């Protein structure tokens, strides 16, 4: 294969890509804003202030906009005490490690939707970042067969696949 295009929940593919000496590109379904918020929550930890009440709002620092949360709005993995490691924490560490070792990250969004967060996040990350989308909109139409029947895309896709060298692609899904 020439490249591995993977979802974040397959961090083990980084070792395969390294072994095969091919690039590995992460596909993120969420927007840059979401990943920027998560990054800054983990780095600045504003939710870990002493005596922070469940009903109090706090600002996530360093973002292009003022974003406020209450402790009650955060996921359990962010709210739990630091000394409580879970299997999910281990997976998140593997995901972070594999992301850093990837050639790049593709986000399912477009620049005009969130320009400040695209620029901000691209400065944060070591791997290259690209955006194209919204793919999820078209994926839902494909599942409902609207797009296939509207444009007869089956033939286009099959023609393209048939034009590729034999055994040059690999599709894996779980």
Output the keywords:
elongated; 174 residues; Rossmann fold; 8 helices; single chain; alpha/beta; two-stranded antiparallel sheet
Describe this structure as you would to a colleague.
This protein has about 170 residues and is α/β, with parallel strands linked by helices. It has one domain (about 5-135): 3-Layer(aba) Sandwich (Rossmann fold). Helix content is about 45%, strand content about 15%. It has helices spanning about 15-20, 30-45, 75-80, 85-100, 115-125, 135-145, 145-150, 155-165, and strands at about 5, 25-30, 55-60, 70, 105, 130. The strands form two sheets. It has a four-stranded parallel sheet. A two-stranded antiparallel sheet has the order 3-4. Helix 2 packs across helix 5. The longest helix is centred in the middle third of the chain and has 14 residues, at about 85-100. The two termini are about 20 Å apart. Keywords: Transferase. Belongs to the UDP-glycosyltransferase family.
